[in-house]
């Protein structure tokens, strides 16, 4: 074997992986993550059931009374809460990427991937692509349920824009959850941590109810909560109202989160033993 | 024609025993804070041979394998695999190695076939080649029937075989097996041994870590004994066996008070070559290393001549503990709790 008898000079740089191979690797890993879903359909429960349950719960439990304060009834609340739930969808779905990575690292399969001549980014990108698919699936299901409970889509383009914005924000959040997933010891703790962070952010926002009746300190919080901006922008796009402010604030948050957390996540991912 | 030829400039060192070195490790150090997982390890594995790395838990075996398979960066020192440096040329290196970790590193949610197909695609095989390689390896490792079942339904032995199959997809030149049979029952262990032997028959160089002398003897031609991140002995398996005794004769006199006088008498015979008789007061037995049937006969003769009653005589392969006892004078144990005990034992010796 000639390869075994010969060595490179110290100056030789590491072999370059052609772009096509990166695509092939990422494709193979996307297939793997999709097979996971086929093998374990329960992993789609959050994407499928979450939009259904939240929509039914909020519309029928709180819809009447919050709708009254909006100057209408349950129908008014449907128009209010659906864009909010859409905003929430990106955030909730982005959590899965953290628990998924944690499982991979703990099971040793990540060792196998890392001992193969592939770019480590392929593993990361494949996971993100599949999570985005899940996110979009959840959005579609939400919109179907929304129409069933009487949501009136006034602008289809606006709806697509809102889905897009929620996805952009959700992908930015994924970097936070990837960091958590790589750093924390078990998948359960990643989930618990995600829950702890998300609960106050979700409810301390304009997602479920208008903020004007909240106490001043909470209003301050909701004002700076990116989920409020996202929900307001989605609402503006889907049912009419101001869009620009919420849109820019959400985009700024997305860019900021990605700029700060993506390098941290990638570094943690690359250097994790 | 390998990837190394393109960049090839210098030949690597010839091993003094002849044959090219597939794995070279020089002064390898890995610290985790205060803990020295590896503390200056030197090692050579000749092409086409099986190197056994024998040591107790916490000796640094897994750390060594993780560094050699580029999963971990060393604190200091150098290591190359078929000439590729672990730090400078990790990607070329990954093309020529296969890894089977201590815990089966297969995707449990995927079917056996899907696991192998995925790795084939990650190793840049075409779809067609990846498919046929997966079929071929499942057949070879007797997993064809379970090919479409998720790996989570496999038994421990099947999972380990799938793991071995996965590490063979890229036709590696060097295979790292980290405790391949730990946690397997004896029958399954024999199956895995047979697979490893057949892989070696195909010319793969293997570096294998183990806690069992028996496993090392079955598979390895050369042995490196490690303890607390240091190499404490190395050489051909026969050479080491003669140091620690190829077999050991365990003698239990009915009267424990006979232990030490009997040990003295046997040592005085001068028949046991390099190693000496050890007394194990806990079990009330003597362990006599023997190298040949003649020595066995001589020892039995000497025991009979003393006219003492013997409860039992058994022959056994030396355990890891006994190997350590012979080589270092202390028992193999995890580094944390070993330090105080060892100091005492060494004083006693």
UniProtKB/TrEMBL annotation, chain A:
It is a multi-pass membrane protein. It comes from Streptomyces pseudovenezuelae. Belongs to the ABC-2 integral membrane protein family. Keywords: Antibiotic resistance, Cell membrane, Membrane, Transmembrane, Transmembrane helix, Transport. InterPro entries: ABC2_TM, ABC2_TM_bact-type, ABC_2_transport, Nod_factor_ABC_transporter. PROSITE patterns: ABC_TM2. This is Transport permease protein. It holds the Pfam family ABC2_membrane. The chain crosses the membrane at residues 44-63, 132-151, 157-178, 190-209, 247-266. Its main location: membrane. Residues 42-272 form the ABC transmembrane type-2 domain. The keyword Transmembrane helix applies. It comes from the Bacteria. It is found in: Cell membrane; Membrane. The keyword Secreted does not apply.
TrEMBL record, chain B:
Its main location: membrane. One of its GO terms (molecular function) is ATP binding. SUPFAM superfamilies: P-loop containing nucleoside triphosphate hydrolases. It is found in: Cell membrane. Keywords: Antibiotic resistance, ATP-binding, Cell membrane, Membrane, Nucleotide-binding, Translocase, Transport. Residues 23-253 form the ABC transporter domain. It is a peripheral membrane protein. It comes from the Bacteria. The keyword Signal does not apply. InterPro entries: AAA+_ATPase (IPR003593), ABC_transporter-like_ATP-bd (IPR003439), ABC_transporter-like_CS (IPR017871), ABC_transporter_ATP-binding (IPR050763), DrrA (IPR005894), P-loop_NTPase (IPR027417). PROSITE patterns: ABC_TRANSPORTER_1, ABC_TRANSPORTER_2. Gene3D superfamilies: P-loop containing nucleotide triphosphate hydrolases. Belongs to the ABC transporter superfamily. Drug exporter-1 (DrugE1) (TC 3.A.1.105) family. This is Oleandomycin transport system ATP-binding protein. It comes from Streptomyces pseudovenezuelae. The lineage of its organism: Bacteria, Bacillati, Actinomycetota, Actinomycetes, Kitasatosporales.
């Amino acid at each position: 074997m000639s390869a075994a008898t010969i060595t490179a000079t110290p100056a030789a740089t590491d072999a370059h992986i052609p772009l096509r191979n990166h695509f092939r690797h990422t494709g193979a890993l996307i297939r793997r993550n999709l097979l996971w879903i086929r093998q374990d359909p329960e992993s789609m429960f959050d994407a499928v059931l979450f939009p259904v349950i939240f929509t039914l719960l909020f519309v029928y439990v709180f819809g009447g009374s919050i709708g009254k304060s909006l100057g209408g009834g349950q129908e008014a609340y449907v128009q209010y809460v659906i864009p909010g739930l859409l905003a929430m969808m990106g955030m909730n779905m982005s959590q899965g990427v953290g628990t998924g990575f944690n499982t991979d690292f703990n099971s040793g399969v990540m060792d196998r991937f890392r001992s193969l001549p592939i770019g480590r980014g392929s593993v990361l990108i494949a996971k993100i692509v599949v999570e985005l698919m899940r996110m979009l699936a959840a959005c579609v299901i939400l919109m179907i349920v929304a129409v069933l409970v009487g949501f009136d889509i006034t602008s289809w383009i606006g709806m697509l824009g809102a889905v897009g914005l929620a996805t952009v924000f959700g992908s930015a959040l994924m970097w936070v959850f990837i960091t958590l997933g790589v750093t924390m010891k078990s998948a359960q703790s990643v989930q618990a941590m995600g829950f702890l962070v998300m609960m106050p952010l979700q409810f301390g926002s304009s997602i479920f109810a208008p903020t004007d009746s909240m106490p001043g300190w909470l209003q301050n919080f909701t004002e700076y909560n990116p989920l409020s901006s996202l929900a307001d922008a989605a609402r503006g796009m889907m049912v009419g109202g101001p869009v620009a402010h919420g849109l820019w604030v959400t985009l700024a948050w997305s860019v900021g989160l990605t700029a700060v957390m993506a390098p941290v996540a990638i570094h943690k991912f690359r250097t994790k033993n | 024609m390998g990837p190394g030829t393109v960049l090839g400039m210098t030949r690597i060192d010839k091993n003094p025993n002849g044959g090219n070195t597939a794995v070279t490790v020089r002064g390898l150090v890995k610290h985790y804070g205060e803990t020295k997982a590896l503390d200056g390890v030197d090692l050579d594995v000749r092409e086409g041979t099986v190197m056994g790395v024998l040591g107790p838990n916490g000796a640094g075996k897994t750390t060594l394998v993780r560094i050699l398979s580029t999963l971990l960066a060393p604190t200091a020192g150098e290591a190359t695999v078929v000439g590729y440096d672990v730090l400078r040329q990790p990607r070329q290196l990954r093309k020529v190695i296969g890894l089977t970790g201590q815990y089966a590193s297969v995707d449990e949610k995927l079917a056996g076939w899907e696991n192998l197909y995925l790795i084939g695609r990650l190793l840049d095989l075409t779809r067609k080649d990846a498919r046929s390689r997966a079929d071929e390896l499942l057949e070879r490792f007797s997993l064809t029937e379970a090919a479409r079942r998720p790996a989570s339904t496999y038994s421990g032995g099947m999972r380990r075989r799938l793991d071995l199959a996965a590490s063979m997809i890229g036709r590696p030149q060097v295979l790292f097996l980290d405790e391949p049979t730990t946690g397997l029952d004896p029958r399954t262990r024999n199956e895995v041994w047979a697979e490893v032997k057949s892989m070696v028959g195909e010319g793969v160089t293997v570096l294998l870590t183990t806690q069992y002398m028996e496993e090392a003897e079955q598979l390895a031609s050369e042995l490196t004994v490690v303890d607390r991140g240091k190499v404490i002995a190395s050489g051909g398996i026969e050479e080491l066996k003669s140091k620690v005794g190829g077999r050991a004769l365990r003698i239990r006199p009915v009267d424990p008070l006979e232990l030490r006088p009997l040990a003295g008498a046997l040592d005085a015979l001068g028949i046991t070559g390099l190693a000496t008789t050890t007394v194990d007061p806990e079990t009330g037995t003597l362990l006599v290393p023997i190298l040949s049937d003649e020595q066995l006969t001589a020892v039995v003769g000497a025991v009979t001549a003393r006219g003492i009653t013997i409860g039992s005589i058994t022959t056994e392969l030396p355990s890891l503990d006994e190997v350590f006892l012979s080589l270092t004078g202390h028992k193999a144990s995890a580094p944390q709790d070993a330090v105080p005990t060892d100091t005492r034992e060494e004083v006693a010796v």
